[in-house]
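Entry 12.
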Amino acid sequence: TLMRALEQLYALGALNDKGELTKLGRRMAEFPVDPMLSKMLVSSEKYGVVEEILAITSMLQIGGALFYRPKDRAVHADNARTAFHRPGGDHLTLLNIWNEWKDTDFSTQWCFENFIQHRSLNRARDVHEQLVNLMERVEIDVVSDPDNTVNIRKAVTAGFFYHTARMGKGGNYKTVKQQQAVAIHPTSSLFEQTPRWVIYFELVYTTKEYMRQIIEIESKWLLEVAPHYYKAKEIEDTTMKKMPKAAGKVQETAYVDLNPYGPGKD
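Predicted 3D structure (tokens):
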């Protein structure tokens, strides 16, 4: 709704109490992407990871059609996909895919060997070029700190603190503010792990509400990036100290009809 959108813009710092664009809001408005993505892009300057967030934003824009999985080479495709996983979550995995492709000088053959749709990565490359030009317009230097995964995840948190979920008893996740039941998407690099706090890019509903493209965060980051939105009492870990085994897995054994690979090979 319109009111919810305005509330979100206010929470992101794009609007002031009178509903007028702030200086931050004017910078965010230069980027033709979702407000949370634009806040993430602007926040990357503070954390010194502009190049990394540019790449992540570009990769998030291509949706789920990144990998393909031919039936006669399904095991190879699954192994290739898993090899890209990086600790910390899916945003860092997407960054790893981008960097490896970039190191090959954007090779089509590399995409073929890794069961990645070249057309999707080309789309990400086009978005990346546009975003780099817009960074110049808002006078943000494209600095890089590729090994600083904490600051990369903090920059993501600065834009997506609205999309926070935490694990409760029994290994089930709920969003922090709305207390909505959610689950880690089976295609996530964190699916079989037990992150206590996560931030997700979007929710996708199939048999249940799944969080797609997630990263693991520390709850104290929420107070750092959004002290106006979260209070210390809200993010206290008042549940169990010890995580249950395999708590990050979806507990049900029912069949989930999901295709993480997109529509097929180019």
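Annotation: The radius of gyration is 19 Å. The longest strand covers residues 197-205.
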